[in-house]
Amino acid sequence: MIKNGRFFAAPQKSEDNFKRVFARLAAAGAGRPVDKDGFADGPWTPESLAEAISAIDGNRGGVELRSVQVWFQDNDNGISDTNLRWLARIFGCGDPEATSEWQTELKAAKERLASERRTKRQSKSVEKIENPSVVSNVYDVPMGEPGFSSGSSKPKDVIYEDDQPVMRGVSLALRSEGVFSGPNSLLMPIVIWGGLGILWFLAISLGVHSVTYSPSEGIDKQVGFIWSPGWNIGEPIFLPIYLILCSSLVTTWKQTNRHSLLTSGGISGVDGWHRKITRFTSSFWAILFICVVLIFVVQWLGVYLLPLQEGSDDVPMIDWMLIALVRPEVLSTDQAIFVSFLGFFYSGIIYWFLFTGSLFLFIVSRDFADIGSAKDDRHTPHYNGQVVKFGMKIMEVVFRCTILGIMVALSIKLNAAYLVSDAESITGWLWHDASLLFGYRLDGWSWINGSPSPFFTSFLLLFLLCFVFGACLAQVKTGFQKTNLFDQEASYAKQAWYRMYTVLGILSAGYLLIGQFYGFSVILALSIAVALSSLLWRVEPVSKIPKGKDQP
Question: What pTM does this model have?
Fold first, then answer.
């Protein structure tokens, strides 16, 4: 039904409380503008509903987003009488009679919620009197999530979900989730840029920001800090964008899209978000172990500390920290040990951000697959449309994050390859290589030690990123299996996925071919251009996907 150009749902006079009534109406998009076919243009989100209420004539004070977020959350918190009147006007589509009916309906639903809350509290009080050792099952505040009030009767070290304890004490998985969702997500780029600023200050202070050495007679090789693409391009530019996209996906999925999918499909029996997170606790600990022990401690000890202590210049790759082995007058051994310690500690943090972000991409995709697999034939076309929309959005973010992550790995390998070449500067090396392909030069470049290093770290990063992309795509496909896709929607999804495969293949080829033959720099430049341009691609909303004549 349409009223005043908006989708209207009449009050059903049900016995549901306010939370259930609101969830049903928000998922159906009651009060939202309709499209050309008469359907609501999508479900309500906390942001869009808060904006719509604040735009009502006469509502000078507006409504706080935090208050609206509380309505969407599965807790015992209700709604104020003032906000209830504004919400009734939204659901009533501005029609006085319909608004009055919805105000009566919402008021009754609010009273039922308050009654259920009082009954629950009374039963818990009786239980605690009869058995004081019983822990009170009240809703707890997910870390970093607004809109919940903390009661004095709940234990602070227990996380609850659906009235069941999820985790007691400090959880690495939930702490990590708190970093990657909500306002805390900005902490990661700040740490990256702040750490880089410290390394810049140290490099300039010690005089290794621009420094050369002679690997052979007649060659002055530039190995200064500011000439390293790994330190100054990959990590401070591509990685922060990766983390911002990843945290945005986690936050949107947790606070809005997940709830909308569950309510519109009437799905139950699926574990809550925080319970899903805790199931990956061992994975979070494994990532922490790899970053601290293998990347930080083992690599620092083997590649930097031991060679610096031995004072041997027989190392395959001299960089701005190992310059102390060949030019001790520029950087002393103690200074090199100190700065290399900070550098690898910084690298450990960088890789923790990257690996943990990849894990969250998979967790979101896995959660989507679990919800999609729980549907049945009773679900509406509106739910099916949401499945397609959210699934394609997940893959869009995963694709972009994979591109950005590979760019980080590519910058690391490019720097390592340059350091073991006989070129005097990295820009000169790339220009020299391109000139060989086009015939402007005939003298080729070569490796200092006869062959390049194995580039194990960057290759492991490339493999991990591609593996996570494939795993996420498999999960999204699983979520689509029980959804009746239109032919055009299925074809559009396959085309988008094939396009993603192609771009990732081109960029991976550019990575693998670095230093393999004369002219590799041209292929590398083309692959980077394709990858960066693909970051601007957008997956069209479901409403814009062309449909056949037999489709609504």
Answer: 0.70
